[in-house]
């Protein structure tokens, strides 16, 4: 029997799915001039005068979302006790950590049976191949007592390390957004399958051209952007080499421009990063003392230093910051069918980021948020591609979208919110947020209102088939984004991400 909340969530998701998947029969359909789908399912992307196009977002998520999430066999089962379950769960994780991985890269799943599990601290997974699984909303993990903390932390160790002597300059004068190849000065020593970083530097003239050296000073915390802080490091894999031409698995989402320092690639290693980890089928709750209490559970699930994992069917209730928070070194994570509800905190900055992504190549889909502030959101200098697909937010307290400082290459596809979806120059908000997002795509979303602008230089943002009110935003006089088909029914394909995924798997 579904309780009232489950009924609301499930019917909301069903409504969104119907909205996306039901064929349009009573209305005229139309297609974007930027994306044309051929009869065989292949896609043709319109290019601007520099060769830029909407990028391919199909390579995101766990195993690029090419297969359903794996069902990992249970190797340890736990029942709740009446007092403190943190050590019991942690000991089980530590025990499974010592098991050998199977041929698929898994040690096994730990099953938490139905019951109430009281957690006064934090549960940690530090090793590859472990899944923590409940039996749905009847497996309840409660962050008890005081302390602003993360309930479940999944993280490896160390940092991404450049391989000495491997850096090579990109020789093309311009590598456009959407490209999956470029030429380097010398490809000797590189091979198919190598993990590389595609590096896009920040130069003084670039910062000047996007006017992020002219942020209006609000107080002593306002910072102008600097060349040392704004270089972008995109993780890619080499798929083909022809002489000195390199092909990569995921597209360029920030143009490499000779006038702004061009671009480079380098080999890297990340010895401590973990993979094949999952969190499934849990209700996570935080104790609290009042609606504005902030001394309690903050994140339900946090991932970092993970390359390949998932969080699915997790509901977070009363947490002050997030249901799922992905750190800068979290890559190829799928977050699906998760809910963030009834948060408890002050309604102000640095709170209620329901589903936060600071990593790259990550996928959020079929998620729901209520009473959040920034429900489906990127942080600073986030490297794409990333995707938020088929998600819904209600009773919103702020806006959806890139939050600050030049996040690049995110697709917002079939997002529904009663609040705002914004991609704009945020000026001196925070300590100098400035341009929040570049080369973002908003596809077939339904919003209360939206401001979507283009930066002064070096990037565009696309908004196609948006239903909602357009407004001028925080700062007027900024260039308008590439708007097409506002409040026009019948956009086809209805989902850009699903169409790209289908094309990629043919």
TrEMBL record:
Signal sequence residues: 1-26
Domain of life: Bacteria
Keyword set, alphabetical order: Signal
InterPro entries, sorted: Pectin_lyas_fold, Pectin_lyase_fold/virulence
Protein name (Swiss-Prot/TrEMBL): Pectate lyase superfamily protein domain-containing protein
Biological source species: Lacibacter luteus
